[in-house]
Design goal:
Blueprint: H1 3-82, H2 87-167, H3 173-185, E1 191-195, E2 198-199, H4 208-216, E3 229-231, H5 238-242
Parallel strand pairs: 1-3
Antiparallel strand pairs: 1-2
Length: about 250
């Protein structure tokens, strides 16, 4: 195979690897941002559950205090009722006591509702706190892993760039220009293999004579359709693999 073609094929391999590395390097911060946002949303949900539980407990305490106030009022009214001079005054005290008792029952019912609501809230808060602790550890582990992977990718990319920079001067200017022109105009692919007489990049069938010229491997040829540099790997015979002639096929 021509030296320029070998170098072009290796350049293509390097450029493909660099694209993949750069894509991964760019994707890692996005991945970290996604999991961090998810963590923040879970923290906010936990804060909302805690706030709801706190509000529940505060209202229960307030209701219990209000019951005490109403009970004290009833006690006072009962003392006053004993001193009533007329039936009308007595009934007025009795009516006010009944009103206080109704308010107490309302508050007691509300306290029961709040207790029913607080149980799942309390369970949710405890479960969310445990899950959040685990998630924070996982996020930190993923962040550390992403930092390590980014560092490894950047190191690998730097090594590939060095190899590429060393290879470029070894190519003839014309070959390098053809490769770079095709790579930049054909979505990063400047070299294509020919299989069964077709360019594997654009699937165009080569002219018979052009295919024969490619097989000679004595000049650098480009696909007449997509302009990518072409190379051909002849099929490997059985004797080439074993070092011995292929066995004769029995008739």
């Amino acid at each position: 195979m021509l030296a320029d073609l070998k170098l072009a094929i290796r350049l293509q391999e390097i450029d493909n690897l660099l694209v993949n590395l750069q894509r991964e390097i760019a994707a890692l911060p996005v991945h970290i941002s996604v999991i961090e946002k998810k963590l923040v949303s879970h923290e906010r949900k936990l804060e909302a559950d805690r706030a709801a539980l706190t509000a529940n407990q505060k209202e229960r305490k307030q209701s219990e205090g209000d019951i005490q106030v109403w009970e004290q009022k009833i006690s006072k009214l009962k003392g006053q009722m004993v001193e009533a001079k007329t039936n009308e005054q007595y009934r007025a005290f009795q009516s006010e006591i009944e009103f206080c008792q109704k308010e107490i029952r309302k508050l007691e019912d509300r306290i029961l509702d709040l207790m029913s609501e607080s149980e799942p809230l309390d369970r949710n808060v405890k479960a969310a706190e445990a899950a959040l602790r685990t998630e924070k550890l996982q996020v930190e582990t993923e962040k550390n892993s992403a930092r390590d992977r980014t560092a490894a990718d950047r190191k690998a990319a730097a090594e590939l760039q060095q190899e590429r920079a060393a290879m470029v001067p070894q190519m003839t200017p014309a070959a390098l220009q053809k490769y770079e022109r095709a790579r930049k105009s054909r979505k990063g692919v400047g070299v294509a293999e020919v299989v069964d007489g077709r360019c594997t990049a654009c699937n165009m069938l080569l002219r018979l004579q052009y295919f024969q010229d490619l097989k000679k491997d004595d000049q650098l040829l480009s696909c007449e359709s997509c302009q990518r540099l072409l190379y051909y790997n002849p099929p490997i015979a059985a004797e080439d693999l074993t070092g011995e002639p292929a066995p004769a096929v029995q008739q």
